[in-house]
Amino acid sequence: MTKATIEVSGLVKTYAKKRVVDGLSFTVNPGTVTGFLGPNGAGKSTTLRMLLGLTRPDAGTALIGGRGYHEHPEPLRVVGALMDARWAHPKRSARAHLTWLARSNRIPVQRVDEVLAQVGLTDVAGKRVGGFSLGMAQRLGLAGALLGDPGVLVLDEPANGLDPEGIAWMRGLLRALAAEGRTVFVSSHLLAEMAQLADDVVMIGRGKLITQGSVTDLTSLSSTEEVLVRAEEPERLRDLVVEHGATAVEAPERAEALLVSGMSSEDIGRAAARAGLVLFELAPRRRTVEDAYLKLTADSVEYRGSVQQPVEGSRA
Ligand SMILES: Nc1ncnc2c1ncn2[C@@H]1O[C@H](COP(=O)(O)OP(=O)(O)OP(=O)(O)O)[C@@H](O)[C@H]1O
Predict the structure, then answer these.
(1) pLDDT tens track for 265-291
(2) Ligand 1 atom 24 nearest Cα
(3) Which atom of ligand 1 is nearest to the CA of 42?
(4) ipTM higher than 0.85?
């Protein structure tokens, strides 16, 4: 196993005049599980396809260990990928599928039984893939990705179709693979899932990078307190908090209420009293990581100036 870094730089892809990947740059390091997060349609799969040489970028580069996917003489030994769990021939058995994959990539066939055991499919190795549940197909896809003992794993929504026990198993496996020094890059549109699994996160919205950083940073970013304030004269309240160096935006979940960041509820209450402002409501609310994610991705929609597609689950 050779360690390798993923480096994406200035990546662009346009479909039908729409930039689905728009100048994306980020790095994914060995020894970490890095979550690739973004709402549906954000451009995650398109980016991964460019990384794997399945789609040609219009501009920019997507390199693994300093080279494009097709520049590696034996790519399966460098990068293992799970993009579509259902690509195996339905009439083949799991073992036959992996044996074919190993032979066509000059990988020793004894690896087949090793990876079948690693993903927990030994008992059904002789069964036809067509009869597999989505969760079993995901495990088979993962076995295929592990076959060449690659230093880099690129997995598109690998938890799809797994039951809670399967998800816990997958989490353990991916963490163990990263602990061995591998670069594990996993896409998901579910932040809660990534918060439990990943060390780092690359977050995108509408094809652009929103943020890259550790999950810990993201959690501290999101744990800043906001205060929901309903005042008789909202405009005066807004001016008042701005004078105190804080910010106020309209609360998405509450008509005529403001969401103030940068000031405690006590300070807002005192300042309002001094200014003779009547408050109807003053409620601190701690943002969860999920809120931060929804807020960040919702902002990326607004950034484009038009909301073509609502952000899934967004309250904005
Ligand atoms: N081959 C293609 N031709 C035209 N449009 C495409 C093509 N592939 C993707 N798109 C469009 O590009 C955008 C980004 O899609 P992509 O699948 O990369 O997003 P995603 O972040 O992976 O979303 P999801 O979580 O839903 O899989 C979408 O609007 C999609 O319809």
Answers:
(1) 999 999 999 999 999 999 988 666 666
(2) 40
(3) 21
(4) yes
Identity of the amino acid at 181: G
Nearest by Cα to 158 from 77, 312, 45: 45
Residues framing ligand 1 (Cβ under 6 A): 15-16, 20, 38, 40-46, 189
Whether pLDDT at 307 is above 70: no
User: What CATH number is given for 225-286 in this structure?
Assistant: 3.30.70
Is 312 a residue whose pLDDT tops 60?
no
Contact, 235 vs 285, CB < 8 A? no
* Ligand 1 atom, smallest distance to 13 CA: 12
Q: Give the CATH number of domain 6-217; options: 3.40.50.300, 3.90.180.10, 3.40.1710.10, 3.30.70.20.
A: 3.40.50.300
pLDDT of residue 266: 92
On whether the CB atoms of residues 116 and 98 are closer than 8 A, the answer is yes
Please provide the size of the chain in residues. Answer: 316
